[in-house]
Amino acid sequence: MRLFNSPVDSFEFADTIFYVKRDDLLHPEFSGNKARKLAYFLENPPQEINTLVSYGGTQSNLMYSLSALAKLNRWQFHYYTKTLSRQAANSHNGNLAASLNNGMELVELNSDYERITSMLHSTSQQLVIPQGGAQIEAEYGLRQLAQEIISWARQNNFAHPAIFIASGTGASALFLQKHLPFSVYTTNCVGSPDYLTQQFHNLMDQFTQPWRLPQILTNTHYRFAKPNRQLYATIQQINQASRICFDLVYDPVGWQILLDNLEHLPKPILYLHCGGLLGNETMSKRYQYYFNRSHSC
Ligand SMILES: *Cc1c(COP(=O)(O)O)cnc(C)c1O
């Protein structure tokens, strides 16, 4: 399967034109940048494999995309996580429910999680994808995305657009910067700015030649996946102005930090929509629970 060539939309907000690369439209099951990160395996599924293995949180967008990849190839899919909260175990929607529906086998580990997941390794029959898909194979699909961005800029005569992507592992931002002549800006949605820099280096150190890192617009305020009033107001405004639905975990932080830094960035700005909308079912419930607000897209 080949997933590529997502469209670019635009809208105006805060007296600025924003372009949005709609990777959320690539494929419903390989949401957004996870389709890019997994493109190598989608296009070249290893023939001898019968089991896919990964680990991380149970609302992970990558987990869901992996469950779809396993189903497509008739592989078993084992996913390790720390002990589930009752709320997560009982949730009948979002990424967890959809992944279980795709046949994912969930393995709950509590005190053994770090030890067991650190020992996982690929064999001829088992493919291990590290948490968040931060691995060198991700470069393949992100190089394709970079090429699409270069063509878009050329067609529109944009000499120095700013490319913005919200980071989790940072693998997407890092590989995009490797293959783009434009500056890639990002922000740390998970962990501190230093943690994100460390993640960049962990991945880049596996290559012989280093390249310039994406520029981190620092987030020192917003915690990962924690409902926040300011973020909620911002993402509602962006959803309305753009008539595009964004995800509720990464994009509220992404847009907030981007808007806070707007005057310092080259123009125009291309925001990468990384998908993740299935996770909104869970996250909008949390917003409802905390602030009694329902999400409108
Ligand atoms: C996974 C994800 C990201 C972050 O991608 P990384 O390569 O891990 O930095 C950003 N936005 C959304 C919606 C995602 O699902």
Topology, element by element:
Layout: E1 8-13, E2 16-22, H1 33-37, H2 39-43, E3 51-55, H3 61-73, E4 76-82, H4 86-89, H5 94-101, E5 105-109, H6 113-119, E6 126-128, H7 138-155, E7 162-167, H8 171-179, E8 184-188, H9 193-204, E9 215-216, H10 229-242, H11 251-260, E10 269-273, H12 280-291
Parallel strand pairs: 2-10, 3-4, 3-6, 4-5, 7-8, 7-10, 8-9
Antiparallel strand pairs: 1-2
Helix pairs in contact: 3-5, 7-8, 10-11
The structure holds pyridoxal-5'-phosphate (PLP).
Pyridoxal-5'-phosphate binds next to strand 7 and helix 8.
How would you describe this structure to a colleague?
This protein has 297 residues and is α/β, with parallel strands linked by helices. It has 12 helices and 10 strands. The strands form 2 sheets. It has a 6-stranded mixed β-sheet, sandwiched between helices. Strands 5-4-3-6 form a 4-stranded parallel β-sheet, with helices on one face. Helix 9 links the parallel strand 8 and strand 9 (215-216). Helix 3 (61-73) runs parallel beside helix 5. The longest helix is centred in the middle third of the chain and has 18 residues, at 138-155. It is globular and about 50 Å long. The chain starts with 7 loop residues before the first strand and ends in a 6-residue tail after the last helix. The model has no long low-confidence stretch (mean pLDDT 94). Bound molecules: pyridoxal-5'-phosphate (PLP).
